[in-house]
Design goal:
By secondary structure, the chain is of the alpha/beta class. Helix content is about 50%, strand content about 10%. The chain has one domain. It is globular.
């Protein structure tokens, strides 16, 4: 990806190295809160609870941990990608007479306190609609390359663009409607709605890539393949197979590898929001 000459975003909030207090959550309430946050974000609560333990939601200032040149390079890269999504979505919203409100992106190390509650890096990158912020531990990019076999800078850009896609859903009122509906239906229907939310965010990431290439020619050979590999790598079927040794489609919350790659490709091909309506699609 051609990114080094790109604009840097003013919306990067660097919390790397901040300490998050650890303690026993009284009455187990902290554990319940973490589980609820995970369910809302479409994450398997069991994965989060196994790794989170009983962490009290407190964040403290402290001396920054040592940062490598590679980590700082990644932070710079994320800032450029974020800025590019800002330029793309500002222009697309203006075309409809609307105003795009830029999100903040928070870089953190290990754990973070968000308006959606306390979160661990084990949850992966996430978007919190309560504070309109994307949260990212840069170590996830290492997991993406080594654990999920999806290396490359455009694979990383896809991750950022996907979470920004959730912000777009929030601005359009989609997230609120889906969340309200999920409270009224059964688990199977709720999971399917969450899958459609995630696949739409994949498609919106593709819409960003379409316009970033058309307007700023950011793509290099192999970049789209990197993004498709990343989308496929975090499909529910692949993750469940790795973790459990079998797949339970009814429990999917993000979509299969094929679905995630397909919807990113649709967004990239057409570059229009109307092609990302996963909620009315005859086939996911």
């Amino acid at each position: 990806m051609r990114w080094k000459s790109g604009r840097r975003s003013d919306n990067l909030e660097d919390r790397r190295g901040m300490r998050v207090g650890r303690g026993v959550a009284g009455g187990g309430i902290g554990v319940v809160v973490i589980a609820l946050i995970a369910m809302f974000l479409g994450v398997d609560p069991g994965v989060v609870l196994n790794q989170a333990g009983n962490l009290a939601p407190t964040e403290q200032s402290g001396p920054a941990q040592g940062r490598s040149a590679e980590e700082d390079r990644l932070a710079d890269f994320v800032s450029v990608v974020l800025a590019d999504t800002e330029d793309t979505w500002t222009a697309l919203f203006q075309q409809t007479g609307a105003r795009y409100v830029e999100p903040k992106l928070v870089l953190f190390t290990g754990a973070v306190q968000s308006a959606c509650g306390h979160a661990q890096a084990a949850m992966g990158p996430f978007y919190c609609p309560a504070d309109s912020k994307v949260y990212l531990d840069l170590s996830f990019f290492q997991d993406l390359a080594r654990r999920h076999d999806a290396p490359g800078d455009f694979a990383q850009a896809y991750v950022v663009a996907h979470e920004v896609g959730h912000h777009v859903q929030n601005l359009l009122g989609i997230a609120e409607k889906v969340h309200a509906t999920r409270q009224r239906v059964g688990e199977k229907e709720s999971n399917l709605l969450q899958v459609k939310m995630e696949l739409q965010a994949d498609c919106l990431a593709g819409v960003w890539a379409h316009h970033a290439q058309r307007s700023r020619q950011v793509l290099e050979s192999g970049d789209i393949e990197e993004a498709l590999a990343a989308a496929a790598a975090v499909g529910d079927d692949r993750l469940q197979q790795e973790a459990r040794g079998y797949v339970v489609p009814e429990s999917f919350t993000h979509g299969s590898s094929i679905q995630r790659a397909r919807w990113f490709k649709a967004g990239f091909r057409y570059g229009q929001l109307e092609y990302c309506n996963t909620f009315k699609a005859s086939q996911l």
